[in-house]
Amino acid sequence: MTSTPNDGFDLRGVLLSGFLPAALFAIGEGAIIPIIPIAADSLGASLAIAGFVASLILVGELIGDVPSGVVVARIGERNAMIGAAVVSVVGLLVCTAAPNPVVLAVGVFLVGLSTAVFALARHAYMTTAIPLRIRARALSSLGGVFRFGYFVGPFLAAGVVHLTGTTQSAFWVHVVCCLGAAVVLLVIRDPATGARGLQWPRRASRPAPAEHEGEQFVQAESEGLFRTLRQHHRVLVRLGSGAALIGAMRAGRQVILPLWAVNVGLDDSAAALVIGIAGAVDFALFYTSGQIMDRWGRLASALPCMLGLSVCYFLLAGSDHLDARVGWFVAVAMAMSLANGVGSGILMTLGADLAPADRPAPFLGAWRFTGDVGSAAAPLVISGVTAVATIAVASGVMGVLGLVGAGVLLRYVPRYLPRTLR
């Protein structure tokens, strides 16, 4: 991203006040995601209960999607991010002190709720701070920042767990990152207003469009969510079900890999290390995925992603009784990241392709909601199937869902997108 000398755009200020808090929050979240099911296991939970506890961070995000728009619109983007970081710290402290899986579940759910608020506030803040001419590149870069966090976080968690010898100590990584994000937002000047610290939105009768663009975005998204679900129900049920299955396959990967690490007997730090290396593979393909979609169309990215993830789930299911289960787990973890990386940005891109040009925010909110439904449901499916059968059967079920998702995308992407974008 560059800026011209006379456009008044403060690139350094946006990098510090927008990207740096996002990076810190992503690193912390990346540190705890692979640790949650392992921490639940260390507190005496079964594999099924551990999967359920891990799912609550995504369930919390889904439930938080609806009120987060109202919260951000009322208190402002920076205030909402600071508040979400503080609530995350409360939830994380509950996790670190949890004596049993039930208390751990409460803390994880709080972290999920605050993550939803932080995510929407971050999106609205970038809408306010970034000029329209470079907005797409900025938001793509923001996605890369989060993948970077999910790559770095597990390594930090592995180091902390190795040094302390306790699984729950990994939650302190996210505590430090949340506090760091809040301090950055309090200290660094807002490039849009030049002010520091907490900023309460002004209630002017006719607010300036540029100054209140982020607030208008979250109001449009939150107020129009359910109306938009009804208005665009055909595309959201058809192609949106494909989006939900993409979200499910990705979220399932984040839960099943730590559970499988427990199943094959890997210790906590080794599991975090393997998942961290897999995150590096995923992160390395972020830009490549965009090139694939721009050159060969959306299906060229979406289908290999879904089919690759499906094959990996089936391979996990078939490796349960092999002698070299640890080796299979490591290989499949890397292959899963490769498949997921090929589909980087596919949900955001499809949403942008489908959104009405005049009022994209309500549709994008509804589109994100469909993806979050899948993300929240997948860990519940995994934990439920594991409870009544085995984790191998749960992996097989996820593989079947991936094949169904690939079929949905193959049928409906050509129906709703122009030939040049397919």
The coarse silhouette is globular
Strand content: under 5%
Q: How many β-strand runs? A: 0
**Radius of gyration, in angstroms, nearest whole number:** 21 Å
Low-confidence stretches: 1-6, 203-211
Q: State the end-to-end distance.
A: 28 Å
Largest sheet: none
Derived from helix and strand composition plus strand pairing, the structural class reads mainly alpha
Mean of residue pLDDT values: 83
Number of helices: 17
Helix content: over 70%
Elements, N to C (H/E) = HHHHHHHHHHHHHHHHH
Structural topology:
Layout: H1 11-32, H2 36-42, H3 47-75, H4 77-97, H5 101-129, H6 135-164, H7 171-187, H8 213-223, H9 225-231, H10 233-264, H11 268-284, H12 286-296, H13 299-318, H14 325-342, H15 346-354, H16 360-388, H17 391-416
Helix pairs in contact: 1-6, 1-7, 2-3, 2-10, 3-4, 3-5, 3-8, 3-10, 3-16, 4-5, 4-7, 5-8, 6-11, 8-16, 9-16, 10-11, 10-13, 10-14, 10-16, 10-17, 11-14, 13-14, 13-17, 15-16, 16-17
